[in-house]
Design a protein that fits this description.
189 residues; mainly alpha; 0% strand
Length: 189
């Protein structure tokens, strides 16, 4: 049965059901990532490795379709860099995980600096305190990861990804339940 032949109420109900299922799976996956952070960190590292290899291949494809000599050379060099780094991460996932963890600490530090700057620029406005709080939390996380590096690679990626997946799953589940309630109300009205 295709979606064109389904009625709108059936399609909405099926979509909400699938959203609830996906939300529940995200919550379970987030919980597992928090419980077993090294496995989640390795999974993320391997995913990043494959994404780098794929991106490198796309640079080669783009170089094939480019007309300018300088652009072709640049795209080929970028493609080689992406494939080499992605291949290295796939061959040495534990070292790749350590590198990603260090990159995460640097990213969080840079984010904290930007959040502090923005919060002070917007200081007289309402809500600027939330930016300051976000900056403080980002800075604390960056320092925690950096001070414990490289041993922080065992827990940092997995726990942070797990927390993100857990909260994304919870928020999606709450949104889906609200949509289900709204559909039930409109059906009864």
């Amino acid at each position: 049965m295709n979606t064109a032949s389904m009625g709108l109420p059936t399609l909405v109900k099926r979509s909400i059901t699938w959203s609830i299922v996906v939300s529940t799976l995200m919550i379970v996956a987030g919980f597992l990532a928090i419980v077993v952070p090294p496995a989640a960190g390795l999974a993320v590292t391997i995913l990043v490795g494959w994404l780098l290899v794929f991106s490198g291949l796309m640079h080669f494809v783009f170089a094939w379709h480019t007309r300018g000599t300088g652009t072709i050379i640049w795209e080929i060099l970028l493609g080689i860099a992406y494939v080499v780094v992605g291949g290295y991460v796939l061959v040495h996932p534990v070292l790749g995980m350590a590198g990603l963890t260090l990159a995460l600490a640097i990213y969080l530090f840079a984010e904290a600096i930007l959040e502090f700057t923005l919060s002070f620029q917007l200081r007289p406005r309402r809500g600027s305190g939330w930016l300051l709080l976000d900056g403080v939390i980002s800075l604390i996380l960056a320092v925690m990861i950096w001070r414990a590096w490289p041993s922080s690679a065992d827990w940092a990626l997995g726990i942070l990804i797990g927390v993100s997946m857990l909260f994304s799953g919870i928020s999606r589940l709450m949104f889906s339940m609200a949509a289900r309630s709204l559909v039930a109300q409109t059906r009864n009205a």
